[in-house]
Amino acid sequence: MNGSAALQAARELAVERVERLSEADLADLAEATDAAIIESGGFGWVEPQGRGALERHFRGVLLVPERELFVARLDGHAVGSALLVRPPRNNEAQAFAATLTHAYIAPYARGFGLARMLVAKVEERAAALGHRVINLDVRETQATAIALFESLGYQHWGTHPFYARVRGQTVAGRFYMKTLEPGRGRSTGALIDGAA
Ligand SMILES: CC(C)(COP(=O)(O)OP(=O)(O)OC[C@H]1O[C@@H](n2cnc3c(N)ncnc32)[C@H](O)[C@@H]1OP(=O)(O)O)[C@@H](O)C(=O)NCCC(=O)NCCS
Question: The N-acetyltransferase domain covers which part of the protein (predicted)?
């Protein structure tokens, strides 16, 4: 093992679903989020929001029943997050599908495999909740995220030409889906064969 590999192996990587956040977690997440926004966005925000607004944002996310927050940690510190958004109760026809959104890792914590772990954890949870499809969309300028999602088996099914406006420029968005293997019950194949 070379020096940098040894250094990397010594880092502690973790991803967890959270239902509450400590003050320290909120401060770390706000810092990570603003760092990601400043570097390239991908979170929806274009401009950094500041600690107060981001802490309020994450507190609010925890209150929404259809939203589940996943936090990535490097050496115990929150350095990124993602949301699993479940369909509302009245959307019975699309109850099988969930959305992965707002995924990012702070620039100072990239390259350790945390995003891969984050997506895997969200997929595992979605499957355990009975969802059979996961949807996501990403600006076409987010090349790293596109490489990540495509390597994880996400299928690009369409492009929206007017997806986002970033600093006066219109940016297209790529839409992806992936079928999930259920932990138990019918196979994903049955879901597809049975589609009306
Ligand atoms: C996309 C992002 C989440 C990746 O985070 P990360 O923790 O560095 O990613 P990982 O270390 O888990 O790498 C996962 C895969 O991403 C791709 N990837 C990571 N860094 C890359 C780079 N510099 N160039 C190309 N591909 C890269 C690779 O496919 C990599 O897999 P591999 O290591 O097996 O080759 C991060 O770059 C980010 O937050 N970007 C801005 C926000 C964004 O685009 N969010 C997604 C849309 S909502």
Answer: 16-182
* 121 CA from centroid of ligand 1 (Å): 15
Pocket lining for ligand 1, CB < 6 angstroms: 36, 40, 42, 103-105, 110-116, 138, 142, 144-145, 147-148, 151
- Name the pairing type of β-strands 133-139 and 169-179: antiparallel
**Spatial CA neighbour of 38 closest among 139, 108, 100:** 108
Beta pairing partners, 179: 133
The CA dihedral of 135, 59, 118, 103, to the nearest 10 degrees, is 50
CA angle at residue 67 from 102 to 147, to 5 degrees? 30
Q: 143-182 pLDDT, tens per residue?
A: 999 999 999 999 999 999 999 999 899 999 999 999 998 7
User: 80 lies in which domain range?
Assistant: 3-193
C-alpha distances in Å from residue 100, one per residue of 27, 118, 137: 23, 10, 8
How far apart are the CA of 10 and the centre of ligand 1, in A? 20
* Measured CA angle at 52 (ends 47, 57), to 5 deg: 75
pTM, two decimal places: 0.91
Q: The CATH number of the domain where 131 resides is what?
A: 3.40.630.30
Q: Is 134 within 8 Å of 98 (Cβ atoms)?
A: yes
Count: domains in the chain: 1
